Amino acid sequence: xxWSLTSYxxxxxxxxxxxxxxxxxxxxxAYAIPYASESNRIELEVVNSTTGSLxxxxxxxxxxxxxxxxxTTTAGIGVLEPGESKTALxxxxxxEEAPVGEVTDLRFDISSAxxxxxxxxxxxxxxxxxxLMLRGNYPNPFNPTTKIAYAxxxxxxxxxxxxxxxxxxxxxxxxxxRKAGYQEVSWxxxxxxxxxxxxSVELKADxxxxxxxxxxxxxx
Length: 220
Known about the structure:
The protein is an all-beta fold. It has 2 domains: 4-126, Immunoglobulins (Immunoglobulin-like); 133-218, Immunoglobulin-like (Sandwich).
């Protein structure tokens, strides 16, 4: 008895979107998923091309990285009559820490009451954010160390500086090339007094300069 998965498609849906546009393919041949997006959908159409019924058909996600959160990893299809097709739906959120520009293969195993039938691999890739994003610092207030998190729309030179309450620069934490996507850096304020500090995250790339500002409090 021969079984086949004749077609599949992946659809990306943002939580705030009213439509369900088809995800575009990246240059690496993977489905490009918007950065830190929610309620993305993978739909697999399963078709029984045999002359007999297939019972207890299900699709199971074999494994997924920690930066993908699936609502469920198994989709039950039930009985598939000859020539019948049904859709297995998987919904997932893409964490902001997902690596940008790296292809990840998701393997789906298809089985029935009679055992394993087939597998299907879908390649996905996280897009970079569309703008420089400051994710804040944590903990805040802190003593003596905090982490500043940010996300870059593309590769470029990043400069992160800290200023005291009267605007004097007291530290330069980063001044180097960083890759697109999620980034974080620690700042140790052991030698600095209590008080309010401000910090800037500056990105220089493609002849453009973008800056985001944050506020943090040292409490000892």
